[in-house]
């Protein structure tokens, strides 16, 4: 199969306009005859569902939380990027495009990234119109700040709760459409299977998590906006429920999966404090605007950080990357932290952290100013650790955070299954091998508010003419039977180990062997071990409870998918014999430890095709063509 | 540490529930309350028993899902803290802890500690939004909003929809939740035009959902993880009366 990204003709800056000029429309009178399924109510899903409903389509919106407002987008703190150039500091669409392409280590599509930058300004307008209370200057104008990886101020924020506020804006737009009768929400529902008829996506099988009922839902298009899968590592910054099930099951039905091993480790998380821990908490990266990162110069220095004198501190980011310093991109900052921790310079009880120090900023700007900017983060830090970070440096360390990988989509955000679209973090995204801070909220919103509302109707215009599929179609019966079989297998398995046991084991394995750095050896080993773990899962799992409300049963399905995904991640990392962005192969580095990218052989998007149970997946390559930027070594020195 | 836990177990909406005793050893003071619950559930799985169902997701105090009554207080003994942000260092070895679901007629119990808070969504559907179409909004800086107004709107907008205010209120009133949204949108220029309809519709919906009336005990503010101020309730009443008086 040839992967066609369907990138429109024309100059880079004209491509999206060209697409929109020629996109097909659906007659307003016909729209009410079309059913659309949107799985996911995060920024991508809620904005898409609300936008399509507003155009007149009937939308069914699904999420596993008890309310659509609780999708994980709610947790994003730092901010959202937009090339508004309000600060007159030289920002523009091209610069944002360039920063993003470079940030992604030249592993993303030019056309997609340009469109992301192009639509960014409009997103701020959209959110403001909805009442999102972004930070304002005293004169009433919007305020913004700079974020990791860029030298201009293009990040808009609502205190440390930008994701929450953007999501509430989208949620409210969605609730408005519910009240108008154009959206029906199915909360506490989990999609467990995709239904494909004649090669096209025509519906889903979902489980009502309250009654245990298995339901069939048919539609003319299915949109997956189901978020990222960083929780595959168990310890991550993601919510407990985040998972890969929807995309994994679509993958098995023919949707290709891309860049799966590109997982960003966020440099500013709270360090792990013990074995009991279920997640790692992110401290907003915006803290790096004022906090300075350092470790003791001497390995094994046991003094409390605040008593280590200035000359014995190693401000390693400022030292190694003077141009960007504490604002160096996430992959660089995370790896630099790991490197220092591995060298024995880590601080904290488990020696697994580095210092994020505000003493200089407090001295220069005053405590009040710092309080105004970050007080909620300081409070949160104290709640979790019992430490006052106005007086002592915060302790931070890298944690699994964001998945650049996901379902392969073309320029229209359509997967390799016609009629199946993937939005937001669930697609392989515009980020390449690394995401710049504050670009993900943007991508999720832009996908849902501004792109899918053009590209989905373009598909529908033709698909409308095809006869509607109903839930009586045998494909639904077949998909439902598969779901039932899996659930009853879980409920009847007679093992002794809990679902969490498998999740934790897989997570640790991946963290060590396919985490911040990987090697041929570690990956080959990981693949073997995951195979064994899966075999054990199939016979040793123990699920208590019934087929109604049962969180253990929910977990089991998600872990089954993680086991498949984890293995694919390792294959993906293994075949990519280079270091790029979040993907650092030990074998491919310079003598001083910098990543060595190989554009000659690896300037492509990997797209994996499922070939059946127990059969190796087939790797397809979508070559990345750069016409507007020169592939340079990504240096932040 | 070692704890005695007394936890509400209830199969479903129509069945009767009861407090059940559990003993738990090896609780670390660094655990969050929910990690302690995970540990307990792990022991139940080992014994072949059904785990205790509770709602949670983000575990960082922002999704609003993890509500439960702990020793009679919504989200436990600390002020302005969600259950997931409550750590076991707040308790001591040998403590007995009572754990129950949020109770309110408008929040039916789903199972054990899980409740149905969809009433909140219905209140928002009744008008808790700004009627702004998607796609072609005006330039953001064409709507000037003073720093103070934006901050005040944010103070209200910070509500996470957790329902602690309802659970802690002797009338099970949703006034704090509803008023927070009303204040946020009424303060902003974008939301002014439909402010009157909004407040009337939302207040009516609040009643229709079976939430009680606010009798100004101010218990809600104390338990609210976001420290949402009861002054918003005053503002809601003001907006409501204004809407009724000025109704054309
Ligand atoms: C702690 C944290 C902080 C962050 N901070 C920032 C930031 O400052 N700036 C930034 O740009 N980005 C940030 N990000 C990243 C950003 O928040 C996410 O990438 C983005 O919100 C993802 O949005 P989404 O709509 O794709 O998915 P989500 O918001 O994760 O939504 C997924 C939805 O899918 C549903 N779902 C999933 N599977 C199923 C299923 N099988 N059946 C039914 N429903 C399902 C869920 O219920 C949910 O509604 C942060 C991420 C984290 C974790
Ligand atoms: S007002 Fe406070 S207590 Fe009530 S729902 Fe909102 S955040 Fe929770
Ligand atoms: S789990 Fe999200 S607020 Fe506690």
UniProtKB/TrEMBL annotation, chain A:
Organism in which the protein naturally occurs: Mucilaginibacter jinjuensis
Record-annotated membrane-spanning stretches: none
Keyword list, A-Z: Flavoprotein, Oxidoreductase
Alphabetized InterPro entries for the sequence: FAD-dep_OxRdtase_2_FAD-bd (IPR003953), FAD/NAD-bd_sf (IPR036188), Fum_R/Succ_DH_flav-like_C_sf (IPR037099), Fum_Rdtase/Succ_DH_flav-like_C (IPR015939), SdhA/FrdA/AprA (IPR030664), Succ_DH/Fum_Rdt_flav_su (IPR011280), Succ_DH/fumarate_Rdtase_cat_sf (IPR027477)
Named cofactor requirement(s): FAD
Name of the protein described by the UniProt record: Fumarate reductase/succinate dehydrogenase flavoprotein subunit
NCBIfam families with a match to the protein in the record: PRK07573.1 (NF005749), sdhA_Bsu (TIGR01811)
Keyword Membrane found: no
Domain Fumarate reductase/succinate dehydrogenase flavoprotein-like C-terminal: 503-636
Residue ranges annotated for the FAD-dependent oxidoreductase 2 FAD-binding domain, each copy included: 35-441
Gene3D superfamilies the UniProt entry points to: FAD/NAD(P)-binding domain (3.50.50.60), Fumarate reductase/succinate dehydrogenase flavoprotein-like, C-terminal domain (1.20.58.100), Succinate dehydrogenase/fumarate reductase flavoprotein, catalytic domain (3.90.700.10)
Residues of the signal peptide: none
Flavoprotein listed as a keyword: yes
UniProtKB/TrEMBL annotation, chain B:
Matching PROSITE patterns: 2FE2S_FER_1, 4FE4S_FER_2
Transmembrane segments: none
Signal peptide from the UniProt entry: none
Superkingdom, taxonomy of origin: Bacteria
Pfam hit, one: Fer2_3
InterPro entries (alphabetical): 2Fe-2S_ferredoxin-like_sf (IPR036010), 2Fe2S_fd_BS (IPR006058), 4Fe4S_Fe-S-bd (IPR017896), Beta-grasp_dom_sf (IPR012675), Helical_ferredxn (IPR009051), SDH/FRD_Iron-Sulfur (IPR050573), Succ_DH/fum_Rdtase_N (IPR025192)
Membership in a protein family: Belongs to the succinate dehydrogenase/fumarate reductase iron-sulfur protein family.
Protein name from the UniProt record: Succinate dehydrogenase/fumarate reductase iron-sulfur subunit
Organism listed in the record: Mucilaginibacter jinjuensis
């Amino acid at each position: 199969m040839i992967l066609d990204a369907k990138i429109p003709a024309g100059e880079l800056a004209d491509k999206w306009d060209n697409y929109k000029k020629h996109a097909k429309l659906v007659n307003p009178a016909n729209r009410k005859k079309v059913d659309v399924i949107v799985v996911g109510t995060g920024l991508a899903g809620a904005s898409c569902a609300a936008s399509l409903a507003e155009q007149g389509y009937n939308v069914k919106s699904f999420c596993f939380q008890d309310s659509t407002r609780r999708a994980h987008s709610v947790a994003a703190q730092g901010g959202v990027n937009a090339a508004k150039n309000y600060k007159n500091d030289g920002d523009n669409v091209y610069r944002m495009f360039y920063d993003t392409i470079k940030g992604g280590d030249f592993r993303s599509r030019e056309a997609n990234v340009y469109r992301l930058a192009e639509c960014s300004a409009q997103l701020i307008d959209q959110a403001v119109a909805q009442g999102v209370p972004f930070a304002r200057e005293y004169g009433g104008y919007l305020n913004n700040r700079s974020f990791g990886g860029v030298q201009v101020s293009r990040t808009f924020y609502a205190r440390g709760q930008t994701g929450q506020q953007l999501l509430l804006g989208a949620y409210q737009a969605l609730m408005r459409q519910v009240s108008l009768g154009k959206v029906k929400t199915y909360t506490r529902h989990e999609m467990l299977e995709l239904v494909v008829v004649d090669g096209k996506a025509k519906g889903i099988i979902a489980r009502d998590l309250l009654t245990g009922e298995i339901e069939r839902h048919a539609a003319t298009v299915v949109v997956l906006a189901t978020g990222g899968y960083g929780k595959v590592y168990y310890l991550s910054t993601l919510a407990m429920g985040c998972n890969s099930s929807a995309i994994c099951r679509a993958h098995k039905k023919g949707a290709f999966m891309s860049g799966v091993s590109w997982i960003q480790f966020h440099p500013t998380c709270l360090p792990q404090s013990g074995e009991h821990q279920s997640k790692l908490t992110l401290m907003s990266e915006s803290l790096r605007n004022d906090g300075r990162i350092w470790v003791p110069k001497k390995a094994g220095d046991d003094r409390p950080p605040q008593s280590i004198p200035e000359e014995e501190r190693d401000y390693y980011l400022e030292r190694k990357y003077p141009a960007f310093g504490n604002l160096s991109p996430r992959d660089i900052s995370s790896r630099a932290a790991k490197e220092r921790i591995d060298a024995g310079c880590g601080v904290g009880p488990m020696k697994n952290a580095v210092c994020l120090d505000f003493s200089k900023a407090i001295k220069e700007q005053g405590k009040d100013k710092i309080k105004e900017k970050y007080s909620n983060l300081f409070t949160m830090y104290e709640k979790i650790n019992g430490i006052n970070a106005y007086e002592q440096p915060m302790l931070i360390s890298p944690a699994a955070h964001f998945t650049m990988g996901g379902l392969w989509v073309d320029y229209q955000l359509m997967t390799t299954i016609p009629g199946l679209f993937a939005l937001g973090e669930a697609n392989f995204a515009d980020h390449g091998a690394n995401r710049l801070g504050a670009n993900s909220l943007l991508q999720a919103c832009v996908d849902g508010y501004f792109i899918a509302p053009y590209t989905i109707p373009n598909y529908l215009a033709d698909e409308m003419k095809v006869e509607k599929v109903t839930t009586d179609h045998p494909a639904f019966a077949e998909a439902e039977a598969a779901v039932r079989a899996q659930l009853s297998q879980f409920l009847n398995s007679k093992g002794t180990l809990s679902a969490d046991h498998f999740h934790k084991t897989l997570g640790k394995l991946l963290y060590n062997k396919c985490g911040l750095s990987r090697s041929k050896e570690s990956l080959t080993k990981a693949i073997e071990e995951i195979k064994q773990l899966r075999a054990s899962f199939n016979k040793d799992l123990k699920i208590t409870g019934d087929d109604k409300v049962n969180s253990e049963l929910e977990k089991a399905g998600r872990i089954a998918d993680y086991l498949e995904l984890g293995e694919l991640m390792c294959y993906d990392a293994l075949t990519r014999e280079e270091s790029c962005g979040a993907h650092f192969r030990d074998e491919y580095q310079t003598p001083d430890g910098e990543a060595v990218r190989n554009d000659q052989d690896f300037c492509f998007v990997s797209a994996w095709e499922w070939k059946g149970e127990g059969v190796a997946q087939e790797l397809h390559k979508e070559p990345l063509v750069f016409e507007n930027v020169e592939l340079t070594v990504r240096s932040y020195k | 540490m070692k704890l005695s836990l007394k936890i509400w177990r209830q199969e479903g909406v129509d069945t009767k529930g009861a407090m059940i005793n559990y003993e738990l050893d090896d609780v670390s003071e660094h655990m969050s309350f929910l990690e302690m619950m995970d540990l307990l559930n792990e022991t139940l799985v080992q014994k072949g028993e059904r785990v205790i169902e509770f709602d949670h997701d983000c575990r960082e105090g922002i999704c609003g899902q993890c509500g439960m009554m702990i020793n009679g207080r919504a989200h436990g003994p600390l002020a302005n803290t969600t259950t997931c942000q409550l750590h076991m260092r707040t308790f001591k070895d040998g403590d007995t802890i009572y754990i129950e679901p949020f109770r309110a007629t408008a929040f039916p119990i789903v199972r054990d500690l899980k409740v149905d808070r969809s009433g909140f969504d219905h209140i928002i559907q009744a008008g808790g939004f700004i009627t702004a179409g998607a796609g072609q909004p005006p330039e953001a800086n064409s709507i000037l909003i003073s720093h103070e107004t934006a901050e005040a709107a944010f103070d209200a907008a910070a509500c996470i929809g957790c329902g602690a205010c309802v659970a802690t209120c002797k009338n099970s009133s949703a006034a704090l939740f509803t008023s927070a949204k009303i204040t946020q949108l009424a303060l902003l220029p974008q939301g002014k035009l439909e402010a009157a309809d909004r407040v009337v519709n939302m207040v009516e919906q609040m009643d229709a959902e079976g939430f009680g009336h606010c009798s100004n005990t101010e218990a809600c503010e104390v338990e609210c993880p976001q420290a949402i101020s009861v002054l918003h309730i005053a503002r809601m009443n003001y907006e409501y009366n204004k809407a009724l008086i000025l109704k054309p």
